[in-house]
Amino acid sequence: MSYFAALLSRDGGPWQPREIDADGHRDLDALAVAMRRGSRDDTVALLLLEHEDEWFALVRADDGDDPRVFVSHARGAASSAYAEVLGFDPELAEDEPEEPAGDAEVLADQGVPAELLLELAGEDGPDVSDAVSEVAEKAGFGEVLDAMR
Q1: Is 4 within 8 Å of 40 (Cβ atoms)?
Q2: Whole-angstrom Cα distance, residue 42 to residue 52?
């Protein structure tokens, strides 16, 4: 299974690409610590996880706030290598719905309203890579993400 992970951060200016090892964290809090460390003290840290053309996740760890997660396909994320980090119990993956889950307002203040994110992640939305590209464009990190790929 192929995953793509990108950490981006900003502190009032343009989004900056950052380095992170998204693997090996025991839970969401540990991942958030690594994201904040990797963001070099920027106010907003955003991790984008993409699994082939099956699902994507957005994890946001703002300075001082609890981390927030949105996934485009709960069952897919729950059965992935990142299940526990994204807040899912892999043993209960079959009980998860085949639809988006989490905080759909994770990027609302960055130009991606919840309605749009849910539409892009929904069954009738575009494929995963096109959905991620549109999220990136709306949030202002499209070119940065393209350079990271």
Answers
A1: no
A2: 29
- Is the Cβ–Cβ distance between 9 and 44 less than 8 Å? yes
Tokens of 48: 């984008």
Structural contact between residues 77 and 52, judged by C-beta atoms closer than 8 angstroms: no
Strands 101-102, 3-10: pairing kind: unpaired
Residue spans of the domains in the chain: they are 3-148
Q: What pLDDT tens digit does each residue of the chain (149 aa) get?
A: 589 999 999 998 999 999 888 888 999 999 999 999 999 878 999 999 999 889 999 999 998 789 999 999 999 999 999 999 999 999 999 999 899 999 999 999 999 999 999 999 988 889 999 999 999 999 999 999 999 98
Give dist(CA 20, CA 106) in Å, integer: 20
Collapse the DSSP code of 138 into the 3-class scheme (helix H, G, I; strand E, B; otherwise coil) and give the result. Answer: helix
